[in-house]
Design goal:
The protein has 393 residues and is of the alpha+beta class. Helix content is 40%, strand content 13%.
Length: 393
C-alpha cells in the first residue's frame, strides 16, 4: 500500500534524477508521469500508483517546494477533468496507453463535442450522425459552444448511431482527431469580445472503430461519466480561502475604504460566507471522490459556483462604481484559457454570465439535484420510449 512516506521517497527520486532547474519542462512532466506521480490514484503504468486520491497533495507539495513545473491544468481542463477519467473507465488498454500520457503532460489539448444548436439542455436529442462504414464511422453534423476547439488536437464526441431507437439508446461515444479532414472550427464571439468558444462543423469525418469508447449504442452511459466529472471539475476545484471570484472583491474592499457602504458591507459578508461554505463543501466532495466515481452531488456544486460567481461579480461592479463600468479590451481574441482573477471587474461580470449555461444549465442541474439527490419524482416525459427519428423537431 503506497503511503505518504513512500510517495515522498519516490518524489525525491524523481527530483534527484531530473532536477527541475536543469531539466526541460516537458521532459520533467513525462518523467513524472512515468514515475506514477501524475495522478497517484490512477493505475501503475498510466501515470499513477493505485494510491489514495487524497495523497496527490503530498506529491504536489513536494514538487512545488522544489520549484518543479506543473502541467498548466487550466489550459487542458477538459482533457484532465473530463476526457481522462472517461478514457480510464471505458477505454481499451491501447486507448489508455495512447492518450493519457500526452493528455496529462499537455502535449495534446482536448475539447468536448457534445452540445448542438438543437440539443443543448436536451443533450440526448442530438442529431449529429455517425454511420458505420467499413472498419470505421463517417460523421456528419454540427456542434456548438466548444471551448478550446481552436487549440485542441483531440475531442470527446457523442453522435447518433441508431435513429430507430429512443434517443438515449442510439448514441455512441468517440474520440475525434480535430486535425482530420472535414473538421471545421469557427469562432463564436462572446459578450466579452473574445472567442474562447467555437462552433464545429463535421463533414464526412472518418473515425476508425478503434477510436470508439465503449459499446455501440452505449454512448449515453459513457457520457454520464464525462458530465459528472465535468460538474466536479467546474464547481469543485481546489481553492484557498478567498480563492476565486471572492478574492478580488475582498481585496478592493480592504484597500478602498472610500467605496464602502453599509448595504455593500452586508452583502459582501453574506457572499463571503457562502463562498467559504462552497469551498469547504468542495473539499468534502473531493474526499468522497477518493472512495469512488463522482455522482450527482457535483451538480449541486456547479449550481453554487454559477450563482456565486454572478452575484459576486455583480457586487464588485457596484462596489467600484464608475470604475466598474470600464472594460480593458474588446479586441477579438481566441484565448487558450479563461482567467477570471487576472482580468478586471468588467470582464468578470460579463464572463460569469456564461457560468449558468456552460457545463449544464442551472435549470437542468436543478432537476438533477431534485431527482437524483433529493429523490423527488421526475417530471412527466412523453418522449422516452419514442424512436429518435419520430420525435418532433
Amino acid at each position: 500500500m503506497t503511503d505518504a512516506v513512500e510517495l515522498k521517497r519516490r518524489t525525491g527520486q524523481l527530483l534527484a534524477a531530473h532536477p527541475p532547474a536543469a531539466t526541460d519542462r516537458l521532459d520533467f512532466l513525462r518523467a513524472r508521469f512515468d514515475a506514477g506521480l501524475a495522478w497517484v490514484h490512477y493505475p501503475e503504468g498510466l501515470g499513477g500508483l493505485g494510491a489514495a486520491r487524497s495523497l496527490q497533495a503530498v506529491v504536489d507539495a513536494e514538487l512545488e517546494a522544489a520549484g518543479a513545473p506543473d502541467n498548466d491544468p487550466r489550459r487542458n481542463g477538459i482533457g484532465l477533468g473530463m476526457a481522462a477519467p472517461t478514457i480510464l473507465k471505458y477505454g481499451t488498454d491501447e486507448q489508455k496507453q495512447r492518450f493519457l500520457r500526452p493528455l496529462w503532460t499537455g502535449e495534446e489539448v482536448w475539447c468536448q463535442l457534445f452540445s448542438e444548436p438543437g440539443a443543448g439542455s436536451d443533450l440526448a436529442g442530438l442529431g449529429t450522425r455517425a454511420v458505420h462504414e467499413g472498419d470505421g464511422w463517417v460523421v456528419n453534423g454540427q456542434k456548438v459552444w466548444t471551448s478550446s476547439a481552436h487549440n485542441a488536437r483531440w475531442a470527446i464526441l457523442i453522435a447518433r448511431t441508431d435513429p430507430d431507437v429512443p434517443k438515449h439508446a442510439g448514441i455512441t461515444y468517440f474520440l475525434c482527431d480535430m486535425t482530420d479532414p472535414g473538421v471545421d472550427v469557427r469562432p463564436l464571439r462572446q459578450i466579452t469580445g473574445e472567442a474562447e468558444f467555437n462552433e464545429v462543423f463535421l463533414t464526412d469525418v472518418r473515425i476508425p472503430d478503434s477510436r470508439r469508447l465503449g459499446e455501440i449504442g452505449d454512448g449515453w452511459r459513457v457520457a454520464q461519466t464525462t458530465l459528472n466529472n465535468e460538474r466536479v471539475a467546474i464547481g469543485g476545484m481546489r481553492l484557498p480561502r478567498e480563492g476565486g471570484m471572492i478574492g478580488p472583491v475582498s481585496k478592493t474592499w480592504r484597500e478602498r475604504p472610500e467605496l464602502r457602504t453599509h448595504d455593500l458591507h452586508q452583502r459582501l459578508l453574506k457572499l463571503w460566507v457562502e463562498a467559504e461554505v462552497a469551498r469547504l463543501t468542495g473539499e468534502r466532495l473531493r474526499q468522497q471522490l477518493a472512495l469512488g466515481q463522482p455522482g450527482p452531488e457535483g451538480a449541486g456544486m456547479k449550481l453554487a459556483f454559477a450563482r456565486l460567481n454572478q452575484e459576486i461579480s455583480g457586487l464588485e461592479v457596484e462596489l467600484r462604481g464608475e470604475e466598474g463600468l470600464l472594460y480593458d479590451d474588446w479586441t477579438m481574441r481566441r484565448p487558450e484559457l479563461v482567467d477570471f482573477t487576472g482580468r478586471d471587474a468588467g470582464y468578470r461580470y460579463l464572463r460569469s454570465k456564461g457560468n449558468s449555461i456552460e457545463g449544464g444549465t442551472s435549470e437542468v442541474l436543478l432537476n438533477i439535484v431534485a431527482e437524483r439527490v433529493l429523490g423527488l419524482p421526475s417530471e412527466p416525459r412523453t418522449d422516452k420510449d419514442v424512436a429518435w427519428k419520430d420525435l418532433a423537431r
